[in-house]
Structure formats: C-alpha cells, structure tokens
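Standup, Tuesday
Yesterday: got the pipeline producing structure tokens again.
Today: sanity-check two examples.
Blockers: none.

Example 1:
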Amino acid sequence: MIKQITISNFKEVQKVVSAASGCLSDIGVHDMRGSIADAKSILGMMSLDYSHPVKIVCEDEHDLNRIVNAIKQ
C-alpha cells in the first residue's frame, strides 16, 4: 500500500519515526529523487528531500494509516 504525504518540518519527521517505531511491519519512505529510507530510522529520514511530497510504502494498511494520522496530529 502506498500513500503520498507532505512533510513540512522536522517535528513531522519525528512524528513519522515515532509512529513507525510502534509498527511491526517494515515501512519505507520514498522521496521524488528516488531515495528510500526506513521510517523507523531518524538518520535515514533526515537524508530525504522534503521539498516535494514523499510516498509512504507499507504492506499493512493499519500501520500505514497510523503513520499518516501521526502527521495530522
């Protein structure tokens, strides 16, 4: 499953990492340059380009929704 989201600041990156850390499934974040980071890795997440929306990729719909909802809060 894939959802496209906009991340506009470091606080939102932290929310993604925090929410992903509580998930059992692997969650990847893909930026428009083609870079991929593990959503559970703060260093990996900091290496991505957030000037455009990123794609969250996960096999579990519940975990994917958990990530998306974390950013909205």
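Example 2:
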Amino acid sequence: EGNLPVQKSATDKKVFVVAKGSSVNDIINNLAKEDLIRNKVVFLYIVKSTGIENKIQAGSFRLSSSMSAKEIATQLTKGTHDEWVTIIEGLRKEEIAEILADQFDIPASEFIKQAQEGTLFPDTYLVSKDASIDTILGVLNTNFNKKYNQTLRAKAKAKGLTDNEVLTIASLVEREANSRASKREVASIIYKRLKNDWPLQIDATVQYVLGYQEKDKTWWKQYLTSEDLKINSLYNTYKNSGLPPAPIASPGLDAIEAVIDADPNTPYWFYISNSDGSKMIYSKTLDEHNSNIKKYLR
C-alpha cells in the first residue's frame, strides 16, 4: 500500500530539491510534505532494503505523485538535472569563471567578458547542468539584488556612498580582513582614510593589477616588492589617492554591511594582519604601525 503512487493519474511533475548534507529523514519528511509519498515508514524501508540510502544525490529532481515510492527512491539516485556550485567570498571574476567553466559547459573567457566584477554574489547555487552564461549571470544577479537590497542601498545613499563605492570598498575589505569583526574595523579605517584624503595603500589593489602569477598558480601575489607598488594603474592605491575605479573581487554580505556601518570615528588609522593572516593588528599612529610591522611581520 505504502509503495503505491499518491495519485496515479497525476501528470504534472514537481521540482524536488535535495539540499547538500540532507539526512534521509529530512528527505523523507520533505517528500511527504510535497505529497510525493504515501507513507514515510514504507519509504524508509524501501531505501534501506534496496541499499540506495547512500546513493541519494544532492540536487534537484523532477518527480510526480504518479510515481511509486520505489520509482521515486530510484530517481533520487539517478543523477540530478542540476549542479551545486559554491562561490566563496573575495574571488575575482577570473577565479569564478574557472570554477564555473569546470562545472558547466561554458568558456571561462566568455564569462569574464560578460561578468561585472563585484556583483557575482558569494553563495551556494543550484544551477541547471546545461545553463548558459546568461542564465548563470541571471541567477547570480538575482541573488545579488536580493542580498544587497533596497534597505541597504538606502542606508549607503544616506552615508553619501554610491553602489559602486560600497562594492569597491567592500571588495577591499573582503580581501584584507578575515572575520566579521575585523571586516567592521577595516571598513571603518578605509572609510576614515577616504574622508580625510589619506592614500589607502592597500596591497590587494596592487595584487589585482598584477593579475595571474604563473609561478605560484594564483591570482593574488603573496609578497609584493617595492617595484610592484610603483606599478602604473588607477587601481594602485599606493600611487593614487581615493578609491580604485571599481571592485577588485566579489564581497559577501558581511563586508557590504561593514562598509555601510563603517565608523569614521574609529581611533585607528592603520592595520596589518600577522604573517599567517590569523590575527589583525590595528594602530593609531605611524610609529605604532611601524613597530607592529617589525613585531609581527619581520
């Protein structure tokens, strides 16, 4: 009885999503909620007795209430129509293009041409295996507008910041800071420096200009030389005052909120992170800053 379809004559199919890391119980409860199975206990028995418990995949499936419980269980092991793709905070669009080209049938160079730096929102997405660049950009863009919403934009505007300025500062914060608290402090220091016409002198902007490092196989050169800091580019915040023209990476929500809540009255003017990047050290004067550099970085 419990193996029978919920509604044998049903013709429509539902999209059923198995989230990453779902337990069998989660999946069974969701199937019951969606009216795709008659009996949870029978379904569990089918899954256990056929040994397909560990073969169920994360992704999205087209299921119908005209399918028997066994058909549904088998379908969940059959390979999904979609792929999960994760974009972490602080990647530049070339790095995101590499991840996507790896998982989908799209050329990285074409994605790079069409993507707008700073708006490729870091998150985990479920995307159709045969998605085009336009579709993927659409999915990323929709999420970006949902997360960087009207409320946040209005707060930014009230602070006198354009969307491009918010995202640009947030991208610097994302590359330079390593925790929610440090993002808030770094955002405040950058904001304070901008307000007082101090040069930002941010390494990440120079790393961005230098681009791919063949030797280390990275987009972000770890150790900058004094020659590197002289490179001619609007993005070089050692040579130019003010902000670079556009974001240098994709910031997450913490970094964006840190910028919008930045406090220009922070007592600090400088920050460094220690050599393994685990700790941020702030200073109020250049002398203090220089002694921190000696202490933590030399």
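Quick observation on example 2: The first helix runs from residue 24 to 33. The mean pLDDT is 90.
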